[in-house]
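Hello forum,

I keep getting stuck at the same step: I have a sequence, I want structure tokens, and every attempt I make locally crashes halfway through. Rather than fight my setup again tonight, could one of you with a working pipeline run this one for me? It's a single chain of 277 residues.
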Amino acid sequence: MGWRDRGLEVKSPEQLLLMRRAGLVVGRTLETLRSHVRAGVTTGELDAIAEDSIRSAGATPSFLGYHGFPASICASVNAEVVHGIPGARALEDGDLVSIDCGAIVEGWHGDAAFSVVVGDPAAARPEVRTLIDVTEDALWAGIAAARVGGRVGDISHAVESHVRSRGRYGILEDYTGHGIGTAMHLDPDVPNEGRPGRGPRLVAGLALAVEPMVTLGSARSVTLDDDWTVVTEDGSWGAHSEHTFVLTEHGAWVLTALDGGEERLTALGVPFGPLAD
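Reply #2:
Ran it on my machine without issues. Output:
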């Protein structure tokens, strides 16, 4: 198989190992950030922690300078769903914060995100805790639906089906997952809604970032005057979850999960297909 298969970037095993290195930088940085999310910390302070973590690992932040983006992470709070710019805002108990992070190792990208309640999760509104779970579980349902020989629409359908099965949620319009590798955003788009059996064919060596963006209300969004921060049109809160994964001949390998996705994929009864890293 060639470097590009009908316009899609297909990676060799050696290139995937470099992507795994980038993915581990992202995964470890996000774990560090998760441990620092607390009331009183500013999103700008979290950004500084992330940049130090990424650079200390010998990697480069993917986001910093990307089309002019001024930070190393996106930090989106409450009704901000994605692309929030870190700054002086201090987090408060009960807030929902979504953190998105990317890193580059020798020209290869990793990209992942998580959402979490600030402070004691038990003190947060139950619907907010459930929203986070629904979004993360939809991400894993999407990855679990990917098979060599399948279609991108299989992933989209699985994400949507999981969200719809859990209640009346909005799936953010106009924003999708994406291919990833030598650039952070490559073909194909990976929508969070769709019909199975549609879209580009899934092949071994194709790396994708799957990222459901789910809200407690409207599926419609607007972009603030900073030209980055995406908020829900109706002010409802939203959550964002993302991982970069690749299909191998043996199964799925989640490059930004510290365990490669083994625990979640095994629990879902899906083949786990890592390369030797």
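Residues 13-36 form the longest helix (24 residues). If your local run keeps crashing, start a new thread with the error log.
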